[in-house]
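User: Can you predict the 3D structure for this chain?
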Amino acid sequence: MKSNFKNAIAALTFGLALSVAPMIASAEDSSDPIIIPIHNWSSQIVMSHVVGQLFQKLGNSVEYVSTDSQAVYEAVRQGDATLELEVWEGAFGASFNAALEKGGIHDAGDHNAVTREDWWYPLWTKESCPGLPDWKALNECAAKFATPETGDKGRFLGGPVDWLKHDAERVDALDINFTVVNAGSAAALWAELASAEKTKRPVVIFNWTPNFVEALYPGEFVEFPKWVEGCNKDPSVGPNPDKTYDCGNPATGYLKKAAWDGMKDKWPKAHTLLTKISFTNPQIAEMAKLVDIDEMEPEDAASAWLKANESVWSGWLK
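Assistant: Here is the predicted structure, written as structure tokens:
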């Protein structure tokens, strides 16, 4: 009798498990739009449209919203944006980690790409300053980089202010005879580079990889004192015992994806897709090239990239 009762309970439990399993497996995504933030550099914009179009292939609706590249982590944490597709270690690692500590946002995995963001120069610049890429050569050659705007100091053209690269702090910590001038956009950096090429004028600008630039303008990153964990927070770390930011940026930085914690439950299929997505350096560089060189609109560039790379993304949808 007891045996039959146990068998009946077991059968009922097994039946319930079978009935629940299809419900879990077929959980549908919300019909609400997935909010994808857009920033001010081309690879992120095109990648956002690439991923947005992949979400649409799953049946999701998507909305793109222009968002500050530092404030976005707070927006994702609070659910005002659903995800972030390009978390660069050098530029945004601090903001990302601060949001992680507060909760509401999680690491959705790394891209295969390896990143670097730092001072960079086209190779013709080395003819005017042969001590490069050693950062100490900059002081010896500062006059070669001077402009009316900077007087007798060299000029470093940095990225937009909201990228928070702390270049002025580095100049101070390493006593570099340069003035930091911030470009208003990534396009302004490339315009400066194209202008300098005409007369082979020496120039040092902010650059990063993956990027299309190296394919057009071979160059090198300036080699500052090697990045050591803590040199941006602890004066005792790095060569200057009294200053922070006395080092370069990480030379092999990560490129992560981040997501709102609620995405897993509200859009489970899209979240699973997001965790599978992983782009390489050449793939990201190609996305940027389609806009910055081929002058395509981001939406069209994304469609063209997807059409040319179906073998890359088709497996992610399975």
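The beta strands are 34-38, 62-66, 83-88, 105-110, 116-122, 154-158, 178-182, 204-209, 219-221, 255-260. The chain has 14 helices and ten strands.
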